[in-house]
Design a protein that fits this description.
- The protein is of the alpha/beta class.
- The protein is about 25% helix and about 15% strand.
- A hairpin with an 8-residue loop joins strand 4 and strand 5 (about 95).
Length: about 750
């Protein structure tokens, strides 16, 4: 043995730290990560370490962003193109080359367009990748340059609220900047759960600060959510789908006890009572007529609402008084309650409560509705998709209808741009989307539709994993993650931020970016130069930054400055929070709204003219849902089904992330009263079912959910066994494909089911 002492080994090279936007999956936030990179591999993810101020707070990632390494290097990542070899939906594929895959996609696009016309091609809604260069808008640019495709409008998230808010205010820009919440004295978190679903990075933080400054926070929700537990002074459980009944009863208390802001109503609103009806509608039912039961004989009292909502009458009256008297006040509407049978009504009802209490256009107040921030709206889709030469567009939720009966669809089905469609959907190019199966209503129905190759003749799925939707593809194109390409993202719904997403590591295997894949298809279609305009992904990021700088943020760093500084994000400080409708409040004549009357429309002449009062009334009304505890269906399926946004997933993204599965296991939540009557104990496997399908999964027995209600966190990957019973717990096994009457939006939260021991 040598006597020479062993030389000390050289210390390992320090990690390279890269500040990068959290991969954008439409979680409701936009956060900053710090990627630790060693030997071409990300080894750790931290979050924002910049100075933290109220004007520009840190953009701290949640557990989903922190756990992204398990997704980035997951053993099931798709790394090469695949072609279906078995029955569509069986999930059997064989590897093929990129040339073969892209040649096939291009030729099928050409064939379908030549045979049926451009509206036979379809890019479905999807937000699995959601920065400016990645995701479905890369495919929309391709389709538009190719001659167009069937367009879409609205979204799954905000179907009813997108359409209903402008019927009251003429705009979606109805929210104050969040720093202004600190000036509020009373905050109603109505069906709103920012601690789990985000709704703007730091929204939960601002609610916490408002509470520390003395605001009383009340959470109204069927579940005792993480937001109710961590942010609220009081939790009020309410029966799902009945929120408009409680809001109407609150208005009854305000009207009868003279708690409304009569002067604001007189000068800024129309349709509150018979004295201020629009011309030509003098004999129509006003809002006060409805609330007082003048025409239907049913005053909307707290006693009336208690029987519908389960909320005690005294509680309803107390909340009405607190909200009306404790000014300024915020009534923030969550989105789950508008993804229901008559989701437009709850949106308009909340807006009306804000208006009649005079909380519109003031600091510390809130107009409700969708509530994009003042003074500027989001800027999500800067990357130029271009104009669609095919002018026809459908509501996003009705794509299965356009597969089954596209040639029959007219404006009565929400078609815009043309009188009627000339073809059914024949080719689907699904990019960063799990809508085809997992996230659309009534999963079994969607599967039957897509299995029939005489309907949709060719399906392309571009993704990172073999999702339930990808199993129905004819060709799968493997996309790289956002860490493996260039991108740039914005501050989502709130916050004036631009977050750089530099390429951190090389693409895994043979994967390519969404942009690169579309560019190579474009080349085969003879439109390659038009698609790229000579730019790669980094050059398009530079183009985006230049555009932001010229139009919105003159202080924005250049791309070179971003890279040299490694700051990751530009944040415009909020020194004086914007207040929606501030100018309108001060002078409604000089600054009218974009409504027909120029005022807040408690009564909508536009809706009145539709002459569908039972489903689309001119004033907001409670309408019993088509599946509810009050219907005949409750005898067989007595439990209302919820599907909340869980910290385990972003919609369906991360469902295969074992770190998050360990922290937030998939199970059905049920109240002890309902469990006891069924002989169910905590942790038991249970069968949850209705006429549309069935699943078996573990249960969690908890008092943190209202009796008569079960909750199955949405987004779990549909995994049917040989009998068709889902073994993963996908809530859309139970949901209905029926849509809301005005917005043609999803009503997936309106569903009834039964639970029994498995």
């Amino acid at each position: 043995m040598s006597s020479r002492a062993a030389l000390p080994s050289a210390p390992p090279a320090p990690d390279r730290l890269v500040r990068v936007g959290c991969p954008a999956h439409n979680c409701g936030g936009r956060c900053l990560l710090i990627a630790h990179v060693r030997d071409g591999r990300i080894t750790r993810l931290d979050t924002d370490d910049r100075p933290d101020t109220l004007a520009a707070p840190q953009l701290r990632a949640c557990v989903r962003g922190r756990a992204y390494l398990q997704r980035q290097y997951h053993q099931d990542r798709l790394t090469q193109p695949l072609k279906r070899i078995g029955k569509r939906g069986a999930g059997k594929f064989a590897p093929i080359s990129w040339d073969e895959a892209l040649d096939l996609v291009a030729s099928e696009m050409q064939r379908v367009k030549a045979t049926y016309g451009p509206t036979a091609l379809f890019v479905p809604y999807g937000t699995g990748s959601y920065n400016q260069l990645n995701g479905s808008h890369a495919a929309r640019r391709l389709m538009n340059l190719f001659g167009g495709c069937l367009g879409i409008y609205n979204s799954y998230s905000w179907g009813a609220i997108n359409i209903a808010t402008p019927t009251v205010y003429g705009t979606l820009q109805t929210g104050n900047q969040r720093q202004d919440w600190l000036n509020s004295k009373y905050i109603l978190m109505w069906g709103w759960n920012p601690a789990e679903m985000r709704d703007g990075t730091n929204s939960d933080y601002f609610i916490k600060l408002a509470r520390e400054r003395g605001a009383r926070v009340v959470c109204i929700d069927p579940r005792h959510t993480l937001s109710a537990a961590s942010l609220a002074d009081e939790w009020i459980p309410i029966r799902p789908g009945t929120d408009t009944a409680m809001m109407s009863a609150m208005a009854y208390v305000m009207i009868t006890e003279r708690l409304v802001d009569a002067e604001f109503i007189r000068t800024h609103c129309v349709g509150f009572d018979g004295t201020q009806m629009p011309a030509g509608c003098d004999d129509a039912e006003s809002y006060t007529d409805y609330v007082m039961g003048t025409r239907d004989g049913t005053p909307k009292t707290p006693e009336w609402a208690e029987a519908i909502t389960t909320v005690p009458r005294d509680t309803i009256a107390r909340i009405a008084r607190e909200y009306a008297i404790t000014k300024p006040a915020v009534l923030y509407q969550g989105y789950g309650m508008q993804r229901r049978a008559y989701g437009e009504q709850v949106v308009r009802a909340g807006c009306v409560l804000a208006a009649i209490t005079g909380n519109v256009g003031i600091s510390g107040g809130w107009a409700s509705g969708l509530a994009n921030q003042a003074p500027d709206a989001p800027f999500w889709t800067l990357f130029p998709a271009g104009d669609n030469p095919a002018k026809a567009a459908i509501p996003v939720f009705l794509w299965t209808e356009a597969v089954l009966r596209g040639k029959e669809m007219t404006s009565a089905d929400g078609i815009i741009g043309v009188d009627r469609l000339t073809t059914d959907i024949k080719l689907i190019y699904s990019v960063a989307s799990n809508i085809l199966i997992n996230q659309h209503a009534n999963v079994a129905r969607s599967a039957r539709i897509l299995q029939d190759e005489s309907k949709v003749e060719f399906i392309v799925v571009q993704d990172q994993f073999l999702t339930p939707s990808a199993r129905y593809a004819d060709v799968i194109l493997p996309a790289c993650t956002q860490f493996e390409t260039w991108g740039v993202e914005d501050g989502w719904k709130y916050g004036d931020e631009v977050i750089l997403m530099p390429q951190v590591v090389e693409p895994l295997g043979e994967t390519k970016s969404d942009y690169r894949i579309c560019a190579e298809i474009a080349e085969r279609l003879g439109i390659g130069d038009a698609y790229t305009e000579g730019r790669d992904e980094r050059a398009w990021v530079e183009w985006c930054l230049d555009h932001y700088r010229a139009t919105r943020f003159p202080e924005l760093p250049t791309l070179d400055e971003f890279e040299r500084s490694n700051i990751g994000v530009y944040a415009k400080p909020v020194t004086r929070p914007g207040v929606a409708f501030e100018a309108f409040r001060a002078d409604p004549e000089a600054h009218p709204l974009s409504t027909p009357s120029g005022k807040i429309e408690i009564f909508s002449q536009q809706l009145h003219a539709m002459d569908r009062p039972d489903e689309i009334p001119a004033v907001p009304k409670y309408i019993e849902e088509w599946e509810s505890p009050f219907g005949a269906e409750a005898a067989t399926y007595p439990l209302q089904v919820m599907g909340h946004h869980t910290l385990h997933r972003v919609h369906s993204t991360h469902d295969n992330n074992d770190w998050l599965e360990e922290a937030f296991p998939q199970r059905v939540f049920i109240n002890p009263i309902d469990a006891t009557t069924r002989g169910i104990a905590d942790g038991d496997p249970v069968k949850v079912f209705n006429d549309r399908g069935a699943m078996i999964l573990p249960c969690r027995v908890t008092e943190r959910i209202l009796p008569g209600v079960i909750d199955i966190p949405q987004g779990a990957w549909w995994t049917p066994d040989e009998d068709g019973i889902d073994r993963r717990g996908n809530v859309n096994v139970l949901t209905s494909e029926r849509w809301t009457p005005l917005a043609f939006g999803t009503a997936q939260h309106t569903a009834m089911a039964q639970v029994e021991r498995a």
